[in-house]
Amino acid sequence: MQQQKLAALFGFMAGIAQAAPSPAAAATTGFSSECSDITLNTNWLVANCPNDAGTSVSSGVYLPSHVTNTEGKLKWKMDGATLQCYCLGTFSNENGNSTLNLEEYIANHNGHLLSSLEGIPTVPSDASFAVPSNVVLTLSAYTGPSTCPSTPGGILKFAGPETCWDLNVAVDPVVWTELMATSNEGWSVSVYNVSTCTGTPLVTFDQHSVNECITVGKNGGAYLSFTPLWNYD
Q: I want to staple 205 with a disulfide (CB 3.0 to 4.6 A). Which of 125, 163, 191, 209 is the partner?
């Protein structure tokens, strides 16, 4: 079975360098000077930032939602600290190191790291727990009448939010009747049998159901949505 979408965007091998932001960015932003414990974790920019009351808040920005590799160059994607990557272009002469100033559009908004790429962001309510050290969601998918047999039909890994992910991997749809999360430190997972992931889900589970066999139903579900339960953008 194909294993897709493990945050495998950009061909990034990335690191964060604490560097002075451009004057334009410094005038309105500066999370590298305001926030602490700044890390890059599986394509998540994570930090603890003070809110307006001075209380530290843990949050993360999923960079593949905001940054893209355009022919070997890091660009802001329309849907202080700098991101340094070796990026691949269509042709080998376009490959090379590329740097993007993350403070140009990412800032501390009342304790939350948020992107202003598409306008002034709305600050969400504080989540109940911090960004986990392991952000990867690992799911085993099963088919057939047996309840989560020892060998799964497929193993899926995700590191970013998905509004509606198609679990079909063949021309003829596969009926996935059970799921088991073997790694989940803070994701809400909903399973649907409609391609738009709308309406009432067949089942929803979160980090409290690790290593539990989740029965989807005899008709199965082929569409999944994943939502982080921590503060994120």
A: 209
